[in-house]
Write a structure and sequence with these properties.
The complex is a heterodimer. By secondary structure, chain A is mainly beta. The radius of gyration of chain A is 13 Å and the shape is globular. Chain A is about 0% helix and about 50% strand. In chain B, about 0% of the residues lie in helices and about 50% in strands. Chain B is mainly β. Chain B is built from no helices and 12 strands. The chains are: A mainly beta, B mainly beta. The interface of A and B includes residues 33, 43, 48, 58 and 106 of A.
Amino acid sequence: NAGVTQTPKFRILKIGQSMTLQCTQDMNHNYMYWYRQDPGMGLKLIYYSVGAGITDKGEVPNGYNVSRSTTEDFPLRLELAAPSQTSVYFCASSLAGAGNEQFFGPGTRLTVL
Amino acid sequence: AQSVSQHNHHVILSEAASLELGCNYSYGGTVNLFWYVQYPGQHLQLLLKYFSGDPLVKGIKGFEAEFIKSKFSFNLRKPSVQWSDTAEYFCAVKRNQAGTALIFGKGTTLSVSS
């Protein structure tokens, strides 16, 4: 199993550009998540999904969109990039159920200039 | 709203010293508790977790944590740290119901000198 994979690893965007961060998992997990990690701030949840076709907002959803058309994929879309979106983005997945461990991808480091 | 507090922002230890990292959460219901570690340049990995039973849980690499319900705490411990334990440590809490996500603390950076 590859686990959770993310592409790209690094990206530099100009203000106003758009891009999609890709996330794929091969563990047949129902739940998938997107977090952003900023220095000294821990991880904050952007969006999550409990299954294909179902998504919900997390703590910091503004400026982002998601879709979940398959169990495996959970892309995160930035429509109009802003400097405040400079961060490291982590995708994670887990089995359904309250206490299940989340497995994290390697992250995407995004810089918006 | 739920929150997680990690008391120590940066801890510096010498090898063989003992470690205790504090974590408190603010939610009165049943919770699941986790400690994750992020080694330099790597993604988060689970160290240990608690959801029921013995409040003293053991994880990988000699780490353990104790859940004290009356104190809303889940402190991480290791009796003797190694240089390879240098990393960032995150405490996370999840309500014990399906469909809820992890709430993370801000993290504690541990630097171990050899």
